[in-house]
Structures are given as C-alpha cells and as structure tokens.
Amino acid sequence: MKDTVRTIKTFFIGMAIVFFCSLFFVPQSFAEEGKVNIRFSTWHPPAGADVQKLWIPMLEEMKKRSNGRITYTMYAGGALGKGPAHYDIVKTGLSDMGYATLSWTPGRFPLTDVLSSPIVCPAKWKGVEAGMGMYNDLLKSEFKGIKVLHINNCVMAHLWTTKKVKNMGDIKGMKIRSPGGLQTRAIEALGATPVFMPLGEVYLSMETGVIDGVVTCPALVKAFKLYEVAKYGVPTSFGCVSEGLFVNQKFWNKVPDDLKPIIEDVGRNAYKIAGIFDEHWYDETMAGFKNTIEIEPLSAEEQANWDKKFSGMLVKWAEELEAKGLPAKKALVLFKEKLAKVEVSFNACPVF
Q1: Degrees, nearest 5: CA angle 86-89-93
Q2: What dihedral angle (degrees, nearest 10) is formed by the CA atoms of 88, 127, 256, 95?
Q3: 193: which strand partners?
Q4: Across-strand partners of 194?
Q5: Which residue, 66, 90, 94, 201, shows the most beta carbons closer than 10 Å to its own?
Q6: What is the CA radius of gyration of the chain?
Q7: Mean pLDDT of the chain
Q8: Which CATH class, in words, describes the domain spanning 2-107+120-154+242-281?
Q9: If phi over 0 gives left and psi between -120 and 50 gives alpha, with beta otherwise, what is residue 277?
Q10: Class of the domain covering 158-239+287-341
Q11: Does residue 131 surpass a pLDDT of 90?
C-alpha cells in the first residue's frame, strides 16, 4: 500500500513540475520564427543501433531537408522516464516527438495488439506499411489527441533461453520474460509462465536463474547484450510488440506548414531512409549470435504444433474483445491482408 501511495505521489509531483514549467518557461522548441527544435525521446540505449543508426539519421535527414530549420535534442535511454511511460511522455508534451512501445501498457490499445500477432516479419519497413494500413482502416480511434507518424509490428521476436528448447514439452513450466501484447498469451499457450519486466532487468534475471528465457527481437538481444546470458535460441516467431513514432499534438499544431510534410515523410519512412532493421540486417544480426548462442529452428511438424496453439490463442483473444464490442476478428483478417501486400506470412491467423 505504501508503494502505491508513493507511486501516486511521485506521479502527481512530476505532473505538477511539468505544468509549472509550461506556465513560467518559454518553450525552446520554437525559439526562432520559422524554425523548430524537436525534443526527441526514446527508451532505446544511447549507444544502441536504434539511436545511433535510426533515430539520429532520421532527425539529421529532417534537418537536411529543411536546410537547418529543423534541429533536435536527443533524450535517449529513458532519460525522461521508463519505457512504458513513453507514449504519455510525448502525449503530455514532456517531449515533442518520441518512440513508444504500445504493448507495454496492457489494455490501453486493445485492437492495436493485433500488430503483435505471431507473424514472420524480418523487416521493420514492412511492419510500418502493414501497421499504417491498419491505422488508416481500423485503428485510428485508439490514438486520439496525438499525431501518429507511424505504427508498426516491429521485427519478429524469437525465444532465447538458458535451457535448450526443441519442442513444447521443453518449454512447459519455464519462466519466460514477455514484452507484453499477444506474446504474453502466446507464452501461456505453450505451457510456460510469462513474466513481465523491463528489458534492463532481463540480463541479471537470466544470469541468476530468476527467469529461464526471454521473448524479444534480435535488435534488443544485441542492444542489451543478452547474447552473453542466453545459451539457446529458437528462431520461431512470436510476432513482436506494437510500437510507433508519435508527435505531441500541440507541438505539431505550431510546426510551420512547409515543414510538416518533411517530418511526415521522413518519420513514415525512417527505416527505409536509414537502411536498418531490414532482411539484410536481420540475417547479419542472427549470424552474429552463432558464436555465443546455439540457434536451432523447430522441425516442420513442431512448428505446425506451435502455430496451432498460437491460432487457438488468437481465437480466444478475438472472442474476448468481440464480447466488448471491438471488431477483433475483422482486425485479424485485415492484418493478414495488409501483411500479404508486403509478402509477410501469418500462418497462425485463425479462419473465421
């Protein structure tokens, strides 16, 4: 109870500070007329590939296309708050633009969870295309009061463990860190116990045996050096988290009209512009783990068994949301159609 009270007090104190600053300090985002400085936030590690090879190149491209009228200040590594807070960090104006993992706030984006379905997607630009197709056709209502540059299904997450897993019997009873979203249900469907914790805690938890493994994408295995504690990898796809690039609405309303198309185009196509997290990068990253992790795919028969479990999990998820009046079955069918356009398979998708 004391921890709950302390958390509530901390939240309101933080909000009070933000409100006070908004009243008495002049925002630096629009220091000079016709120019804009973007305060960019992300939970990604400052030295990781996401910051160094994606977000900084993206922001530099905005600066270049605007002839220097767009500049930026980087707040990486959770400098403004922990991972699950990043959507609100942008929405409340603590930052102007930022990347947020939507799956880390269970129940807040119920239909958008469809993006975290078990699919085989090795390229983030494909995830953006499918994600924005879903946003335009079905998911807009879940993102009121914020400017969406893109949402995506991330690069597929695999299973990384300290004990070898070759079949469903091996994973049964294991404690596996889940990033949230449908991965939590997928882990449960296989007979394992999902454990939610920040990625920064996974290394020590695997090293000390608190958990037996983690479901996450290759980029984060590399960024958080999990290849040092994971002994085995199963490159079956649990899908991945739903994520997105967002802009504070009040900030967006003040951006000069001729700069908005630059921000929209570069933000939407950030992965293509940076040339990262595509099929080539995925293959290279996975190959780089082979010196430290024993990576072995499931047999065709075993993969079919896992897909069947995943499909049953998706049916239950859809039925629960349908009972609440949300078109989850439509979301699954539509997501499969959007994925097919970028040649991404969704074998676990149920047939309704």
Answers
A1: 150
A2: 20
A3: 175
A4: 176
A5: 90
A6: 20
A7: 91
A8: alpha beta
A9: left
A10: alpha beta
A11: yes
- Roughly how many angstroms between the first and final C-alpha of the chain, as a whole number? 45
Which residue, chain included where needed, has tokens 């958390």?
7
pLDDT-based confidence at 2, cuts 50/70/90? very low
**What is the three-class DSSP state of 122?**
coil
Nearest to 212 by CA among 191, 199, 194: 194
**Distance (Å, rounded) from C-alpha 248 to C-alpha 257?**
16
Residues of the chain with CATH 3.40.190.170: 2-107+120-154+242-281, 158-239+287-341
Convert the pLDDT of each residue in 290-316 to its tens digit. 899 999 999 999 999 999 999 999 999
Q: How many Cβ atoms sit within 10 Å of the Cβ of residue 3?
A: 7
DSSP-based three-state secondary structure for 331: helix
**Do 78 and 309 form a contact (C-beta atoms < 8 A)?**
no
Cβ atoms 92, 14 nearer than 8 A: no
Q: Which of 75, 111, 112 is nearest to 94 (CA)?
A: 75
**If DSSP codes are grouped into helix, strand and coil, which group holds residue 142?**
helix
- Strand 70-75 with 294-295, pairing: unpaired
Residue-wise pLDDT for 219-244, tens only, equals 899 989 999 999 999 999 998 889 99
Residues in the chain: 352
Encoded amino acid at 163, one letter: K
Q: How far apart are CA 313 and CA 323, in angstroms?
A: 16
Poorest-confidence range of 124-133, 141-150, 174-183?
Answer: 174-183
Q: Which of 299, 305, 295 is nearest to 348 (CA)?
A: 305
pLDDT surpasses 60 at 52: yes
CA 145 to chain centre: 20
By DSSP bridging, strand 70-75 and strand 36-41 are: parallel
**H-run or E-run covering 336:** helix 328-341
Q: Name which of 129, 339, 132 is nearest 239 in CA terms.
A: 339
DSSP 50: I
* 100 three-class SS: strand
**Helices then strands, each counted (H, E), the chain:** 15, 11
DSSP 121: -
